[in-house]
Design goal:
Low-confidence stretches: none
Shape: globular
Bound molecules: zinc ion
Radius of gyration: 19 Å
Structural class: alpha/beta
Order of helices and strands: EHEEEEEHHEHEHEEHEEHEHE
Length: 311
């Protein structure tokens, strides 16, 4: 525990979501993490103390801490509404100690107020899985037939928003993951199947939540002319070469990086309107490694969330 700096709050952690990015970080797949890092960037907690400049939150209020931890405010990206691309951005649970902890400090200018209708555990996955999924949805466009490759924490939230927007969702899981396909259908997927299966209709767009580069040509092949394939993960295995005709017809491939604070404001408003429900699997904070192992093995339905003990 440390005293909050001028723009920081000290937060008692009530819940912290477990994200695939945490796995990439602990596996050393992302460069230059903080030394002796505490992971975790989907933090829900109660403000215990505020820094001298803080007026947005008060002691005793609930607060959410996302992946975007700070930006420079001065680079060309920050000045053009693209702070997600800031050259000097720092990220929670990566360059800044995160929420696999009893207490955490965070720059309050990047924190969110959370909808009151969500419990702490239910709200945690909104802070990355929900937010990044939302940004990916925006970039995928509003075409009717949307494919989601990888049906974990992010997809199970994104499907609910997509359905609310009137889109038909086609869910793709690892071959053989019948439980994942049933989960997707229970949330309203019009079709669910293995990622190596050609869907019954061509897709208008596809979002890849699975960090599997070989799915890029697979998804392109399933996408109609003019459609986008959006890669939503921070890390992905190499994309194999593929024939140009898969990209031809004004198809596009793009990635989604991080979030802006205005994405968060939009997203939390939509979450309240659409009554998105999160499916969560709680783990004790002491079982963080078990939660990561289960995520790695694809055993988590919805999102894993760490909960510190209260004594
Ligand atoms: Zn994340
Ligand atoms: Zn910047």
């Amino acid at each position: 525990m440390r005293e909050p700096n001028a723009n920081e709050v000290l937060i008692r952690v009530h819940a912290c979501g477990v994200c695939r990015t945490d796995l990439h970080i602990v596996d050393g797949e992302l460069s230059d993490p903080k030394d002796h890092l505490i992971p975790g960037h989907e933090i829900v907690g109660i403000v215990e103390a505020v820094g001298s400049e803080v007026s947005r939150f008060h002691r005793g209020e609930r607060v959410g801490v996302p992946w975007l931890g700070s930006t420079c405010g001065a680079c060309e990206y920050c000045r053009s509404g693209r702070e997600n691309l800031c050259d000097k951005a720092r990220f929670t649970g990566y360059q800044i100690d995160g929420g696999y902890a009893d207490y955490v400090t965070a720059d309050v200018r990047y924190c969110f107020k959370l909808p009151a209708s969500y419990s702490d555990i239910e709200a945690a996955p909104l802070l990355c899985a929900g937010l990044i999924g939302y940004r990916a949805l925006k970039l995928a466009g509003s075409g009717r037939r949307l494919g989601l490759y990888g049906f974990g924490a992010a997809a199970h939230i994104a499907i609910q928003i997509a359905r609310h927007r009137g889109q038909d969702v086609f869910a793709f899981t690892k071959p053989g993951d019948l439980a994942g396909q049933a989960f997707a259908r229970s949330l309203g997927a019009v079709w669910a199947g293995a990622s190596d299966v050609v869907p019954p209709e061509q897709l208008d767009a596809a979002i890849l939540f699975a960090p599997v580069g070989s799915l890029v040509p697979t998804a392109l092949a399933a996408t109609s002319k003019g459609g986008a394939v959006v890669c939503a993960g921070i890390h992905m295995s190499d994309i194999p070469s593929f024939p140009y005709h898969l990209l031809w017809g004004e198809r596009s491939i793009r990635s989604v990086a991080n979030l802006t604070r205005s994405d968060g404001d939009e997203f939390f408003a939509i979450v309240e309107q659409t009554q998105v429900r999160t499916t969560v699997q709680p783990f004790a904070l002491a079982a963080a490694n078990e939660a990561l192992a289960q995520l790695r093995q694809g055993k988590v339905e919805g999102a894993a969330v760490l909960v510190p003990s209260r004594d």
